[in-house]
Structure formats: structure tokens, C-alpha cells
What we know:
Layout: E1 2-5, E2 18-23, H1 38-44, E3 53-55, E4 61-63, E5 66-71, E6 77-82, H2 96-107, E7 123-130, E8 133-138, H3 145-149, E9 175-181, E10 185-190, E11 204-209, E12 225-227, H4 232-235, E13 243-248, E14 253-258, H5 268-277, H6 280-287, E15 292-294, H7 317-326, E16 333-339, H8 343-357, E17 361-367, H9 370-375, E18 384-389, H10 410-421, H11 425-441, E19 446-451, E20 453-458, E21 461-462, E22 479-480
Amino acid sequence: MCLIVLAGAPFEAIARDEVVFAITLEPNTLDPTSAPAAAIGEVVHYNIFEGLIRIEENGNTSPMLAESWEASADGLSYTFRLRPDVRFHDGQPLEASAVKFSFERAQAPDSGNKSKARLFDNIERIDTPDARTVVLHLRHPDPHLLYRLGESPAVILHPASADQAGTQPIGTGPFRLQNWNRGHSITLSRWAGYRDADSVELRQATFRFINSFIDDSPLPPDVDVFFNLATRAVLSNRLNDRYQVLIGNSSSKGLVAINNREPPLDDIRVRRALNHAIDRAAIIQQVLQGLGTPIGSHFSPTESGYLHLADRYPFDPERARSLLSEAGFNDNLKLTLTLPPTPYALDGGQLVARQLADVGIDIELEHVNWTEWLGGAFKGNFQLTLINHVEPLDYDIYADPAYYFGYDNEEFRDLIDAHRNADNPRQRNRLLADIQRTLADDAVNAWLYAPQICTVARKGLEGLWVNYPIYVHDLAALRWR
């Protein structure tokens, strides 16, 4: 991690109780329990909605709505004690019944909760012996349970308004939805009834949706924070005396996702050829301005149990051509690469297409908006797509054959089950290594990089995270100085 602070003349006068963020994608809903987009949590997590557990910038867990908890000796039950001073935005107190409702809603077959398989399906029973106590009984021990409860899909919804959470969210956080200007911005306003309202200095926060800049263009003067935009246009503002550049780490994994169920991508030789044809170092340098680390499986170096596998498929165009020839393709393979509207995809897609063309693969670039990507590629209707998975510890998505990659490997699912049931850290770490090697050997996807997080912020704004174990902006911690 490095922090670049630029000295210079004072910036123009700004409102000392407001902040404007630029983020790349517009959420398709404001309910993080019903849809997978990370942009949802960027806006609402910690701000409108809260969970039992809080994840700190260093990746540690701490109390949020739960003031304390204890686990049974066998790791199969957790008892949470709720804070006594929490109310929803409509004034109703938070009670254990709301936690039970939220988690059972997430367990429903049609819930759409992206943590359903890894978190909620593991909850066998939920007891609420009194209004402030919640007991989770698990099917199998989960060493990551507290962390998963700290992610945005585990926030607690108001039982009476959960169906409207996507557009009219009522939570327990320090901010409320003020306005959603579709296609442009979302504005939150401070809630006076928050349990610790006196500590919140911001009166208002706006999230603007900006996913591209013209190179070397000036930054929009009304934006205070540009989050995760490692473009030449943004980084050129290192020379601007009004901003500071924060560069940190995250659990993100950038990859060319491959539809394993669709011919000819169901042929491992083709998938391995794709991996050998892609020059990860060039992509990191040209697309991320060097702010990333090559990876070779679905783990970031920041995640527990990480195994360095970036050398499993070295950049080797000749090897790629040989594998394609073995699979029956000699300069006659045509594939479509679907690109969502993010800078890394728009810039990276062009480069990936050129690299694949060099080994005889004709790539058609398909540009889609975020809603189209979620309804198409994320539903399995794609061949290749360039995407960044930001969720930490999400390797178990590969155990679901219905997930959009279409990876169906019973031996891999056995590894996931063995890891879930492992009874000591050493065994769990060994199985994590086997999980990573299996994904790499099967060339399920072409993993590219673990990107660093680049945030450009107006000087004088304090409380921003530098490292992002999860994508969240804690507005209550921000203040102007």
C-alpha cells in the first residue's frame, strides 16, 4: 500500500458537511440482499443498512448491531446479543425477530441473495429466545461465519418494508435515501434518529455514476472522491494540488470468465489455450497503470490461504496455438467477449481481443450496460466476459454448476465439503491449496490480476479507507478538516 499526498495551494471553498463520490456503476437496486452487484453495498452498506457484524478496513470483525456473541465448542451454534439502542428509520426498535426474518428471507429458494449458498443455506435453525438474542444453529462449522455476516448480503431489513427495500429502503444506519436520480446519482441524507447521531458530521452524501474519463482531462470540480478509477485521466491528477491519491489492496479478482458449459469452451484444451494467450503483465501495466498483481486462481493475495499460481499458465502464444490445433482449431475459432461498462473492461477488452487474435482467435466485442450484463452474462448467456469479482473468500461459487461459469466438477465439490468439515486450521489451509490448484488445472477461467484500489480524494477529507476488504464507504466516519 502507498499513500501519495500532494502539497500545494488550498482548494476552492466546498460545503463542509457534504461529500460527492464518483463510482463506476449504478446499482440496479438498493437491496443488497436481493442482487449481486457490488455497487449496491458501496452506497447502502454501513450507511442505510447494517448487519450484526462490522468488517474493519484491516479485515478484522467487530460488533455492529450485535454487541457481543459466543460460539459453541463444536462451532455449530452462535449466540448473538443485540444492541439495546437500535431503531429503524421509522422509529421501530430492532428486535431478534427482524434478524430471523431477514435470514429466513435470504434462505428462500427465490431470494437472489448472493451469499445464499455460502452462508444462509448453512443455517439449519434460528432461535430467538428473547427480543435481544439470536441463536444460529449451523449444519457444519464455518470458520468464516463472522466475516460472512459482516458482508452486505447479511444486512438486517425491516420486516414490514423488506419488499420495498430496493427503492425505498428503511434500515438502521446513520443515513436515509433522499433521492435517486436514475442514470445520474443517489443522494443520502443524515438521519437525526441514529443512535450515535452526534458523531456523524456529514449532512449529505451523493454518489455520482461516472465510468470513464478522457485522458488527461481535468476532474469534475464538484466531485470529492473518485473511487477505484485507475485510469490515466485520474492518475494524472497526482500532479493536481487539490487532491490526494490513495492506493491500497482489496480482495478483488479480475478475470476473463469462461462459459464452461458451452462448446468449444467445454474443451479444457481451449480454456488452457486462452490462459496461455493472455499476457497478464501487459494488461496490468496498460489497463491498471501497473496497479495490480498477477493471479492464477480465484484467490487474492490478501485472502487467507492464498497460493501463488500465476505461473501455472505463462504467456506463451506458441503453446496456445498448439493447444488450439489439438482441439481442432487452426485460425478458425470465433468467440464473443461481453464487456460491462467499466473502465477495466472497456480498456482490457480491447487488449485481450488483440492478444487472442495473435493466436488465431477472432473475438467479437459485445458492449452491454450493467443491467444487460446482469440479465445476460451473469445468467450464463455468454461465451467470454471480462469482470472483476470483489467478494472475499468466494471460492465456493465454483461448487454450484448453475453459477454463470457453468463449472461442474464433483471432485471439486468434495474438496469444498472437506474444507467445510475440516477440524483444524492446518487441514483447512491444505484444502484451500487443493481448491486453488484444481481451479487452475481445470482452467475454469482466465484469472488476470488482483487489482489495487486507487482512490483520488480532495484534500481535507478524512476517514476514507485505503484498503478495501469489502467494497463499502463508511460515510459516518468521514469529516472535513
